[in-house]
Design brief:
Blueprint lengths: L8 E5 L6 H15 L6 E6 L4 H7 L5 E5 L16 H7 L3 E4 L2 H7 L3 H13 L3 E6 L3 H5 L3 H13 L11 E4 L13 H19 L1 H6 L1 E4 L8 H5 L6 E4 L6 H11 L3
Parallel strand pairs: 1-2, 1-8, 2-3, 3-4, 4-5, 5-6, 6-7
Length: about 260
């Protein structure tokens, strides 16, 4: 982490878990500890039906609400979809875009990721853009090539003055839900590479300001080591975000002076 230049952000990704009733209980369980947080921002990215509850439940504490997906059009005949304008009106501040599960199961592509990024930025929200490689791709030695392509596609035609509002999450696909985790050094190497791409496109000052998270099974046990890396600015937390004690432990690891 490097708080001199950029935010540290711990974001929970609930995925398709938690009814509104269950989610409210989870938020209430973490609120007392989050109230003591000073050195990092905390976000809960929740299922769409939980957004109103989450916004109401976090009004009196430093927790920001995020969405797990968005459509790139502002409105129209897209049954079942939700626009960035709708999310903003509901009280959302962050939106996850391009998660590996969206790419794998729902046909998300680099092209749709870019469209969604621009729509979210236009609405005044913050995109959390996920990039990452499979185990096969890592073993082929093309991790950096693939990450470069995904990052450049995501930021294509994005105005320079809006790049700082973006958050990137490096999520090695082989480390999501498998119990495997990239070493701290592996995580930092790719996060540093992402920053290098941004620096080449937009300059060193902008690159220093962009938050880059690690999103591959960060948990209570490995959070401190991962967050100690200079280019790991937080975490996009999956399963551990559903366990109050574990999520609080990760937040505490990011909240060190």
């Amino acid at each position: 982490m490097n708080r001199r230049y950029r935010k540290t952000i711990i974001a929970g990704n609930w995925k398709m878990n938690m009814t509104a009733t269950e989610g409210k209980a989870l938020i209430e369980a973490i609120k007392p500890s989050i109230g003591k947080v000073k050195w990092c921002d905390v976000v809960v990215c929740v299922p769409a039906v939980d957004i109103p509850m989450a916004v109401r439940s976090t009004k009196d504490v430093r927790i920001t609400v995020g969405a797990e997906n968005v459509h790139y059009e502002d409105h129209g005949a897209f049954t079942g979809e939700i626009s960035a304008r709708m999310l903003k009106d509901a009280g959302v501040k962050y939106v996850i875009i391009g998660h590996s599960e969206r790419r794998q199961y729902f046909g998300e592509t680099d092209t749709t990721v870019n469209k969604k990024v621009k729509a979210v930025l236009e609405a005044g929200l913050h995109p959390i853009v996920c990039v990452g490689e499979s185990l096969e791709q890592r073993e082929m030695g093309i991790t950096k090539d693939l990450i470069s392509m995904q990052v450049r596609a995501a930021i294509s035609e994005v105005p320079a003055d809006k790049i700082r509002r973006m958050v990137f999450a490096y999520e090695p696909i082989w480390a999501i839900g498998t119990g495997k985790t990239a070493t701290a050094e592996q995580a930092n190497e790719v996060c540093e590479h992402i920053r290098t791409i941004i620096r080449k496109e937009f300059g060193a000052r902008t690159a220093r300001a962009v938050t880059i998270q690690y999103g591959g099974s960060m948990n209570a046990k490995n959070a401190a080591e991962l967050l100690a890396q200079p280019d790991v600015d937080g975490g996009l937390i999956g399963g551990a975000s559903l366990k109050p004690d574990d999520f609080i432990a990760i937040v505490n690891a990011a909240n060190q002076e």
